[in-house]
Amino acid sequence: xxxxxxxxxPAEVSEAIRTLIRWSGDDPTREGLIExxxxxxxxxxxxxxGYSEDPAYHLSRIFHEVGGYDEIVLLKGIxxxxxxxxHMAPIVGKAHIAYLPNEYVVGISKxxxxxxxxxxxxxxxxxxxxxxxxxxxxxxxxxxxxxxIEATHGCMTGRGVRxxxxxxxxxxxxxxxxxxxxxxxxxxxLIGL
Length: 193
Description:
Blueprint: H1 11-24, H2 36-47, E1 62-63, E2 73-84, E3 90-100, E4 105-106, H3 108-119, E5 122-123, H4 125-140, E6 144-153, H5 154-157, E7 168-175, H6 176-179, H7 181-191
Parallel strand pairs: 2-5
Antiparallel strand pairs: 1-4, 2-3, 3-6, 6-7
Helix pairs in contact: 1-2, 3-4
């Protein structure tokens, strides 16, 4: 079995990475760095593949036959990796996505796919949280949506203040999870917060 063909890397992208290597103080013609520009370019194409995806597409297949189920649906601890738009440093974390169905549900893997489609773009955690919640709200029309994201940021751990193990938490509550204190407490309890 043959490995899939690698897409060609534009010359200007490779040269930009070589320039960055030189600027950082190393020699891009050194043995260990010769193929680095192409590897970095392919990695960034993968890191940012969410730009070529429509997250709403993942919510287009719904299921009406749910046996009368009308309680919270929660997908907890979905791992993700993104990159900060300010420093292009990694954001690594987990998301908890919940919704209270109205008339139908969606396959649970689709919630993770929505998260990954937005995470595979240059991001800030606050916007990532809002985009995931808004996409579910706009496409599933549930009674409520709750998205909580917990992540560490490479721009804080690897540079600048250099403070490791700090976890940033963001949340977006919509519908009943915003308006009804009892529903909000229930979903946060299920998430474990």
